[in-house]
Structure formats: C-alpha cells, structure tokens
Design a protein that fits this description.
Keywords: Coiled coil. By secondary structure, the protein is mostly helical. The chain folds into 4 domains: about 100 residues, no CATH class; about 40 residues; about 150 residues, no CATH class; about 80 residues, no CATH class. About 70% of the residues lie in helices and about 0% in strands. It has 16 helices and no strands.
Length: about 525
Amino acid sequence: MPSPTSDTLTTIQRVLDPYIRPREEAAHIRRILALHLGSSLEDGSVNEPLALVDIQKPGSASATRGLYRQYLEALNANIKAREDFKKQTHDNGHASEPEEADSSDGGLERLQEHLAIISLEKKRERLQAIEKHLIQLGQKPAASPDFMNPKEIFRDSRPLPSVPRELVSAMTLDNTSTNAHLKDLNDQLEKHVFKAKLLLQKEAQALDEVRSQSTARPETTTDSAKLEALNKTRIELIGWIENELSKASGDDPEHPPGSPDNRFRASRASVNEPINMDAQLASIKDKYNQYLEARKSLLNLVSQHPKPDIKPTKPEDVNPQNDTLPSSQTAPGGQLLTPYLEQLLALSREQKGLIAQKHHLNNTINKTVKENTTALDHLAQESQLIPAHPMPGANRAKSADALSASNDDYLQVSGRVKPWVYAAEQAKIATFETVAEKIEEGQVALEGSLQTLAEIDLLLGRKAGAAASQNEGEEDIWMAEGSSPTRKHTRRGSKMVEPAAAAKTGTVWDMVNGNLGLLRSDE
C-alpha cells in the first residue's frame, strides 16, 4: 500500500512536468529566441532593453526592417504628435489672456443684468397666472348676481315636511304663557319665604327652650362633663354629616305627583290670565326685604353674649327642687352655650371637609389600585417569564383569596407583584447556572486545544525546550486558576504527551527521500 508521502510527491511531479525541461533542451530554446530577436533589430544583437529608446534621437526607420521598423515609425509619429500638442497649447494660452482681462471688467454688470431679467420674467409669469385665473373666475356661474338667489338654489330640491300641529300649539302656548311663568315664580318665592319664617320660628323656640331648661354654669361645670358633652355632640355631628353626604352622592328621587315642581309645570300650561307686573314685583321686593330682616335678627340673636345678672350658686346650695322651678325664675343658660355651639359648628365644618377629602382620596387610591391590578393581570397573561418560573404555592394563595371575604386592594397589588419578583430571581439564578456551564465547557475545549497544539508541535518536530517554555507562558496567561477544582477536574482526564516520546518520534519530512535541488534557469 503506497504511503501518503509518495502519493504527494507523485502529484507534485505530475503538475510540474509541463514546465520542467532538460538542460540541453532549455539551452536550445534560448538560442532560438535570441536569433529571432536579433533578426528584428538593426545590428542583429540585443545589448540593451528595447524600452530604453532615446526620444530626442530615435533613429531612422529606413535602414531597419521587420518589427523594429514598425516600432520606430510608431515612435516617430508619437513624438511628432506630442510636439504639435505642446505648440497648440502654448498658442491658446497666449491668446486667452487678453480675453480674460476684458471679460473680468464687465462680468459683474452682465451678471446683475441677467439676474434682473430673471426676476422680471418671474414677476411677469405670476401676473399672467393671476390674470388668467381672474378671467376663469369671471366665466364661472358663481359670478352672476342670481347665483345666490334662494329660489334658484332650492328650485330642484324637495319641499320641507309640514310642522305638526301639536308643536305649533305648544310654541304658541309658550309665547302666551310668559305672564303665567312669572306668577309661578312668585308663588315659589312666597313658599320659600314662608318656609324660612317657619324655620326661624322653630329655631327661636328651640333656643328659648334650651335657655329655660339649662341650669348649668361655667363655674360649676366640670371638665369631664364638658368633654363628654363635646364627644356626644361630635359623634352626632359626624353621623349627621355622613348621612347628608350619602344623600348628596346618591341619585335624587323622582318628584311625586303632588310636588311643587309638578304643580308648577301644570300651572304653566293652564294659567293664561293677565296680571299686573309692577304690583307683583313690588310684593316680591317687600317679601324679600322681610326675609332679610328676619335673617339679620336671627344672626344677631345667635351672636349675642350677654353677661349673667345673677351670681352663680354654690354646688352645696343646689337642691333637687331647682329642676322643678318655673322657666321664669331660671337664668337663660342658652346664652352660655352659644360659644360652644360656635366652636362645634367650626369643628363640624372642618370635619365635613376632612370627610370629603378622605372620600376623594379613597376613590383616587381605589381607582389607581384597580388600574395597576388590571395592568399587572394583563402583563401576567402575556408574560413568558412567570409560566417558566411559577411561584410555589400560588394556586393555594388564589383559592384562599377567593374564599376569604376581605378585599384589601393593597394586599392584592403586592400579591400580584410577588410572582414577578420570584420569577426574576429564578431567571437570574438560571442565567448564572447557564453561564457557569458554558464557562466550564469553554475550559474543557481549551484543554483539548492545548493538547492538540502539543501534538502539532510533535508532528512539526519542534524542540522540547521551546515547546515547554511556550506551554509555561500559556499556562501563565490562560491557566492562572489551575488549582481550582474545575481545572483539576478538566485536567484529570486529559493525556499529555511526554517530551521523551516526542524525542523518539521523527518528523514528516524525515521520510522524504529525494534530492530535488533548485530549478536553475541558467546554462
């Protein structure tokens, strides 16, 4: 079986055979080429390269023959063409100098005139376009005076539908019932004034009752009693404010059939009697003035702070029989409660504002939490990270939340965020593990590459010392952590070739038996 080395040599010889000649044959070919070149020259000898010809004195072509004669004729024609070109270039350069001097003087003026002509041409084109469009607009039918005539416009259109009689009668009723509308407004104003008077009387009676029934004095009232009274009042005010707010936030009930609004609507359609406007306005003005006076008197009564005329009695002199005294003999205690009532009213207004603010904040927070929860649910449905790394115990938590009656929005948001945090941590750990595995695979591949390089050095016949020094340098760079457990594990299975085995093994070129030498081309 032939060896690979002999096959390689055979292939090389077969490729180079067409180009390798014996020495005698090569000398014969050279002599033939020299004779052919000598026949084409003037003196028949090749002493210098053909390209180095003197341009000034190329020589005459009449005394030569063959290819050299053709070469000299072409060279003479080239030299003559160059001289003609140089002469014409020199003549043209001297002739263009005065023309350039003349053109530099009037070039700026000609340029300005050309620019002015261009601007005038553009202006003329614009004016022509405007005139053309004005002529076209004058020829349009919209330019005629009868173009906007309604009869001409609606000549071919369909007639409008007839207006229902009910609508016409309702419009006429509204036009004729203006006075009735004013009368209804007057009636409503009278009702409001009457209600205000009744309310004022009730408040005055309640104040008189409180003054007659109250026997407490600021000197005899203890702090605990004041605190208890304030707490009770505060609780009642809070309950009343919450009830009013709940009523205001809900829908208004429908008006009953006998309500004033329904009677007002009925009166507008039924009353058509003419009334005296001036008298009605005067009566309305008088009633409004009475209402203002009653309101001022109520405010003055509330703001009064009279001093007590009777000295306060001592606690030991107070008898249980004092409760049975007539109201005429007791001091007006309502006057003493007036400052507390004012403070309670101020506190009630503050608490009302706080309750409204709390309600607004709760609504805003609930809306934000709902939006965040919806966004997190949508992202969880489209996410590929959470299904890949599910949180343990998520199903049990969902079932417990479904069974529980509490609906804490903040806990729901935090519970929806926890799976994302857990999935991110698990993805980070998985990424670290993958990177560690890839690094270990790279270290194993590096060990294999080093082993392959050592085998290549042995095949190339490098010295053991140079290979050892190179290996030491590589270990200094790439194997700085050779003492780690991973490196020990990877190097344990590798098989290194000893230098003794490398010394015993010969190179590939030692088996080549042949003295080819150099392919010399000289004789």
